[in-house]
Amino acid sequence: MLRSAALPLLPGNCFNSNIGKTKFHRSQQFERIKNVPMLCDKITPGIGGVKRFQKYPSIFARGEVTDLPPWIVFDKQILCFDAYFQETAQEREGYAFHVRKCKIFFFLEDGTIKVSEPKVDNSGIPQGTLLSRQRIPFPPPRHADFYDIIDFNIGNQVEFYGRVFKITNCDRFTRVFLNRLGIHVPDPINMPDDPYKVNRDKIKDTTSAKNPSRKNDRFSKFLKYDRKVLRFFCYWDDRESEGGFLHHLELHYFLSDDTIEIHEHIPDNSGREGGAVFCRRARLPKVFKELPAFGHDSPFTVLNVLSSGFTKGGRFIADPLNCGMDHTEYYSETDLAIGASINCYGRQIILTDCDAFTKDYYRLRCGIEDFTPAEHPKAKEEMPCPMVERELPPYNGYGTFDDSAAHCLKMIPVAPQRDFVKFLKKDKDGFNSNILRFRASLISKNPDDNKRFFIISFFLCDDTISVNEEVMPNIGFQGGMFFSRNKIYKPGQELFVPKEPDIYTQDDFYVGNVLVLNDFLFMLMDADEYAYRYMEVNCHEFPKSNILLILEKLREALKPVYKDFVKEYLESDAKKCGVVPYCEMRRKLKEILGDKITEHEMITIARRYNARKKERKMDKETLRSIVHTELKRYLFNQFERLLETFRHMDPERTCFVDRKTAYFVCRAAKVPIDKALLNVVLEQFPVNEKCQINYMDLMQFLNYKECPASAAVPINTVDTFSEFKDIPPPPIGFVNYEALLKDLDLEKDLKNQSG
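RESULT FIELD:
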C-alpha cells in the first residue's frame, strides 16, 4: 500500500499499488562489488558504468582511498556525548523540574542514534534506554531530514521527539574524531544541579532523627573477616559421670559475626551414635542460667504505657534507654587461648592446641609468641596396643608358599600377585634380557661329576633360577635342562613353617661363590660378558663389581705392605712395560687379603685395568664434534629444558645421576642422537662411588652454544656406533699395574705419615 505524502493517513487516501501489475517477482537486493556483498540502493552508477558508493571515509578526500562501504570502514566506531534534559515536576514544593542526565551514542556505520540514562539507585524513576537505536528525524518542518554527525557538538541542543537535550561533554575518541574532520570541539560545560537533590540534602542536614540508631554495624566486620575462622582443638572430660567418656572436640570461631561452632570427632567403630555437631553455630554466652525469654536480644524495648489496644491501631512508645534489655556477655576472640576453659552450656571445654592460621592471627593481633600445646588426655580405648602379626598355618608342601597364603588370607582364594614394579623394571626390554648367566662346575665326591659343567641363569625380574648342563662329548651324561626355572631356597632352613624361607637373590651370584641348589653344590667359575657388564653398570646394586669400593678395600690392606707390593710388581715386570700377568696379580692379592677378597672382585680389577683393552674408535673431542653436528642438523637447542629435567631428577641437587637415568632423560627430551651413539657418549664420563655421572659435565659436552666443537663431516651413526659391531674385549691376560697404583694413590699417604 502506498500513499501520497501530501495527504493525511486516513481511509480513502491510500491505494493498492498492485493494481494493473503483471509481474510479481522479487527484485534483486544485493550485488557483489569488489567481492563485497552490497545492497543495490546503497550504490549509484558512476562515470563509465562503474558504480560508486554514496559515502566515503571522512578523514580522506574523495577518490584518494579505496572505496569501501561505511559499515566496514566505521564498524564498531561510536561517538559518545554527555547530555541532560529538564523534566517538569508538577505541583512540587521548592522545585519545578528535574535534571536528568543521559548519554547520546551516534553509530558511524549507519548514522543511527541511541539515548540511555544511567541508572541511579533508589531514584524512583524508570531509567535505562530512553530511545532505542534508530535514525531520528529533525523536528518539523525539517522532519524529512535526519540528524547527522555535524549536528552533535558540545553546547548544541538537539530535540528528539519533543524532548530537548543539551550536550555538555564527550569522550576522548569523539573529540579526536571530530577534530580530524575539522570540527572544533569546545570545552566541557558543567551540568546544572538537580533542584530535588539539592532540596533533599538541605532537609537531611537540618533534620535529626527522633530516636538514636541502635543498629550494630556488623557489615564492615563481615567484609573484613568473611571466611576467616579461628580453629582450636579441645576436649570435654565426661568420664566422671555414669557412662561418660572423653569427647574430642574442635572449636571454630567465626570472626565475621563472633559466632562459635563445635564439632566432635567420633572414632570409627567406637559404638557411639549421633552427628558430628556438638554445638550449633551461634553466639556462646559466658554464663548460662536458663533459656532466654522471647525478645531478649531485641535492639529496643517497648514501654507499656497503654494497658490494651495498642495492637489494634493504638500507639506504643519505644524506650530509647533500653531499660528492660537483658545484657548478656558472650565469648569473644580475646577469651580463647591454649589452656583456657570455656563454659558451653554447663560443659567445661579445655582448649589444647590451634592451627597455623590461628597462631598467625594472634601473633599479629596480640603479639603472642608462645603456642605450646597443652596436654590432651587419652582414653583407655585410645592407648596404643601392640601390633600382632597375623600368623599363618605351617606350609603343608602342596603348591607354593604364595598359593597357601592366598588360601588362608581370603575366604575366596585368588591367584598370588607378583611384584609388578620389580617385574616392569627388570623384565626383558629389547636386547636387554636382565638375565645373569654364570658358568659353574659341580662339586661332588664322584670323580665323574667333576667333568660336568653347567650354565646357571638368574632372572632379575622375579629372582628365579634355572640350571642347564653343557653337552660334553664322551662323558656319559646327556646334558640339557637340569633344573627348571623356579625359586630355590637356601639350605639349612625349615620348609614347613608359616613364613616363607629365604631364597637366593642377586647378592649371592658372583664368581667364586658356592651355591647349594636342591642339595647340589655348584661353584660359580665365570660369567658371560653381559653379566659382567650389567653388574659393572649397576654397581650400586652389586658391590662385588663396584671398583671404588674394591679400591678402598685395597688401600686399607696395602698400607702396611705397600713398598713390598710395588717391589714385587717391579720384579715381575722384567721388560719395564708397566704390565704384569693376571695370575701374578691374583696370587699377590690372595696372599695379602686372603678371604677378604673374592674371585669376582679380582676379575673386576683385572677388567678395569686390562692391559689389552679394546682401543676406542675415536677420541673424546672427535666424538664431541660428531654429536654437535647431529644436534645442529636437527636444530636442537632445548638445553635449558634438558638441564631443568636433570635437576628435577636430582631433588637433592648433587649434580649426579646414574647412567640409566641420564639415558632416559636424554631420550625423553628428544635429543636427536642415535641410541648407540648416546650410549657411547655416556661411557665417556667417569662414575663416583654410587656409579653416578655428573650431568653438568654431560650438559657441557652437549651444549654447542657455550662450548662449540670443530665441525665434522656427517656420518651414519647407526652403522658406526651399533652395538652389534662392537668386538668383545680380549681375555684378561695382563694387568696394567701402573694405572692401578696411580688410582690407589698410597704414596701421598705414606709421605704424609713419614713427614
